[in-house]
């Protein structure tokens, strides 16, 4: 898979988030939730107008260029939020985490901001660079789609079901464009043409069992193994913020069926749908495991819900292997795609009859 060059114009524009967030943090008027939401919406509107004015040709060629440019800007903002919450920088986005979206101050919120500010940011620059040079970015887009979908679905569900359900502010409604835009982007990415055409089913089967087991754990299964696991290996699954529980259920209801179908597709050739969906699920599991593993040990997670020190090795080994499986599957599909191509339809055999 060719990695397109990064979009320098978008990178420069996105770095404007640094002085903007620093200046807004020192505006006393932004101490009210409604003011924070209105100012955020105004900035996004001005940003979109600026991008359209500077990159009209790219947007005419592919409107997703504007989406990736705006999201790159917000990725820098998310990175500053994560760095500030961990004490690496000060004076940038404190007003927003206090009056806009306080649930970003949770361990899970911090790590989805880290992921968005690094992995998603590089994907936005790469995809925007591909559009600028009129190249394909289908594989990158599918990976981003899965990662973004897992991030937003778990985060929004956890906010609604967890202990922060009573702390919704007007800024919460700014997340709706983040749900609608990826849906539109996903349809456009799937409609792009495919590129010309050493994961084994055993590994996917093991990952499927692990997915099912952790789903049963968060559903309070009475088995002794579930009780031991949730108290001695992953107590973070009991955290009342609800993000880990939602994530395990998302995996059980959506990722587990995919593993079953992928096992079939690795056994019987001609399943042309697998390469695309392998990238989507690789992105989803990559983002999910990064946030889950980081939040399980972060200082913002209460001590009783953190991974015990004597089980760190087992915890990291299981979760890293679980994250590695879908990526190996995606690599398998991209490296040897011929196995998944449907054979061309064969015409009716020609029958030659002798004239008598």
From TrEMBL:
Any one GO biological process: regulation of lipid metabolic process
Domain EXPERA: 61-186, 196-330
CDD domains: TM6SF1-like
Protein origin, superkingdom: Eukaryota
Localization in the cell: Endomembrane system
Pfam family for this entry, one: TM_Tm6sf2
Keywords: Membrane, Repeat, Transmembrane, Transmembrane helix
Bilayer-spanning residue ranges: 33-52, 64-83, 103-128, 140-160, 172-191, 203-231, 246-266
Record membrane topology: Multi-pass membrane protein
GO molecular function, one term: identical protein binding
PROSITE patterns tied to this protein: EXPERA (PS51751)
One GO cellular component term: endoplasmic reticulum-Golgi intermediate compartment membrane
InterPro entries assigned to the protein according to its UniProt record, in alphabetical order: EXPERA, TM6SF1-like, TM_Tm6sf1/2
Family (UniProt): Belongs to the TM6SF family.
The protein, known as: Transmembrane 6 superfamily member 2
Organism expressing this protein natively: Propithecus coquereli
Taxonomic lineage: Eukaryota, Metazoa, Chordata, Craniata, Vertebrata
Gene name per UniProt: TM6SF2
């Amino acid at each position: 898979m060719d990695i397109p060059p990064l979009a320098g114009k978008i990178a420069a524009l996105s770095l404007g988030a640094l002085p903007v967030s620093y200046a807004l943090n020192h505006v006393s008027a932004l101490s009210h939730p409604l003011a924070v939401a209105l100012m955020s919406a105004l900035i996004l509107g001005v940003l979109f107008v600026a991008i359209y004015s500077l990159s009209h040709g790219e947007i005419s060629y592919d409107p997703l260029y504007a989406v990736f440019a705006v999201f790159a800007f917000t990725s820098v903002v998310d990175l500053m939020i994560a760095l500030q919450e961990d004490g690496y920088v000060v004076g940038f986005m404190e007003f927003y985490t206090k009056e806009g979206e306080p649930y970003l101050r949770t361990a899970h919120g911090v790590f989805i901001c880290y992921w968005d500010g690094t992995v998603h940011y590089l994907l936005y620059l790469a995809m925007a660079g591909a559009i600028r040079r009129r190249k394909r970015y289908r594989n990158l887009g599918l990976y981003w789609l899965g990662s973004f979908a897992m991030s937003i679905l778990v985060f929004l569900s956890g906010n609604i079901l967890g202990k922060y359900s009573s702390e919704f502010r007007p800024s919460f409604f700014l997340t709706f464009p983040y749900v609608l835009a990826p849906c539109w982007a996903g349809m456009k990415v799937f409609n792009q043409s495919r590129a010309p055409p050493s994961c084994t089913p055993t590994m996917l089967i093991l990952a499927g069992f692990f997915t099912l087991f952790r789903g049963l754990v968060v559903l309070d299964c009475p088995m002794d193994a579930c009780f031991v696991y949730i108290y001695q290996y992953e107590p973070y699954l009991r955290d009342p913020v609800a993000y880990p529980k939602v994530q395990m259920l998302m995996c059980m209801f959506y990722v587990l069926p995919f593993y079953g179908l992928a096992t079939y597709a690795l056994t019987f050739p001609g399943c042309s749908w697998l390469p695309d969906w392998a990238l989507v699920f690789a992105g989803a599991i990559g983002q999910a495991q990064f946030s889950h593993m980081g939040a399980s040990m972060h200082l913002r997670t209460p001590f009783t819900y953190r991974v015990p020190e004597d089980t760190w090795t087992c915890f990291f080994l299981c979760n890293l292997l679980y994250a590695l499986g879908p990526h190996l599957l995606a690599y398998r599909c991209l490296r040897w795609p011929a196995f998944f191509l449907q054979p061309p339809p064969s015409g009716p055999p020609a029958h030659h009859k002798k004239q008598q």
